[in-house]
Amino acid sequence: MASGLLALLDDVAALVKVSAASLDDVPAQVTKTTGKVSGIVIDDTAVTPKYVVGLDPSRELSIIYQIAKKSLINKLLLLSPAALILGFFAPWAIPPILMLGGAYLCFEGYEKVHAMFSKHDADAHQNPEEEVKVITAEELEKERIKSAVRTDLILSSEIVAITYATVAEEALLTQIIVMLAVGIFITIAVYGFVGLVVKADDIGLHMAKEKHHKRVRQIGYGIVKLMPGFLNVLGYVGTAAMLWVGAEIIAHGIPFTNHALHNLEVSLADVPALAWVAKVIVSALGGLVLGAVIEKVVMLVRKAI
């Protein structure tokens, strides 16, 4: 009896040691995963501010909080458990799901590019007598939040899937902790930065008040002048990142295109920055073409229904 109890205690001690060693590796795994999803994080960070542009400034932080809260809930309670379950029972299903998400990003990115270039033509050909749908500020806010959460859900699914792929060979406890840590860290980082960006003009106005030192006032004036242009640039970056990330996700799921991207990077390996830029440009252009094709298919389906 005593020997059996000692054997059980030895087993428990060994399990504790293994778990402790596994947990010691968590920070390294979180750092490694965060680096791998940096492109998607840039996309998420650049895309989100446009959802609050034009809305009541007093509601900006509330809107960002609502998007961030739903993003965190999706990562922790929906996507992470789904990735663990799929990874255990049907790992083959993860790449196609990611590719569908990538296709949606290409489609949405193409629509934004198309809207940029067709805006003036649409204004010129608009019929003055055509009925315009009017919605309230509350309805517009809800639509913006829904759209932001929908895009974030796709980006979050890519983040969670990449995180799972990074720790797939680790112990289950490590997988869970790393996925939770990455989800929390990235959500706080992305939406904390977004909140700072959208309120930067208010910070600048506060710094520009007469009660502050002249140098502080100058910095405040500079921030106020800089932010409109910065938000425009950030919008373009978000659209480009949407195309780039979407196309790269799809490319990694197709052996031929995956090898082509890899060969491109290898050919420019002597200049890492140039290799990265070339891959981004090629991916973004490919995403634009793919988005255009998807848009045509969607239009044909809509007409047929």
Main β sheet profile? none
How many structural domains can be distinguished in the coordinates? 1
- So what's the overall shape? globular
Order of helices and strands: HHHHHHHHHHH
Low-confidence stretches: 4-23
Strand content: under 5%
In total, the number of strands is 0
- Quaternary structure type: single chain
Separate helix tally? 11
Mean pLDDT value: 80
Structural class: mainly alpha
Return Rg in Å: 24 Å
Helical content (DSSP H or I, runs of 4+) = over 70%
- Distance between the amino and carboxyl termini: 74 Å
Core attributes:
11 helices; globular
Description:
The chain is 84% helix and 0% strand. The chain has one domain (26-125, 136-201, 231-304). Residues 4-23 have low confidence and may be disordered. Helix 4 packs parallel to helix 6 (137-167). The protein has helices spanning 2-24, 26-36, 38-47, 60-89, 94-125, 137-167, 172-198, 200-207, 214-252, 255-267, 272-304. It has 11 helices and no strands. The chain has 305 residues and is mainly alpha-helical. It starts with a helix and ends with a helix. The radius of gyration is 24 Å and the shape is globular.
SSE arrangement:
Elements: H1 2-24, H2 26-36, H3 38-47, H4 60-89, H5 94-125, H6 137-167, H7 172-198, H8 200-207, H9 214-252, H10 255-267, H11 272-304
Helix pairs in contact: 2-6, 2-7, 3-6, 3-7, 3-9, 4-6, 4-7, 5-6, 5-9, 5-11, 6-7, 8-9, 9-11, 10-11
Offer a quick outline of the entry:
The chain has one domain (26-125, 136-201, 231-304). It has helices at 2-24, 26-36, 38-47, 60-89, 94-125, 137-167, 172-198, 200-207, 214-252, 255-267, 272-304. The protein is mainly α.
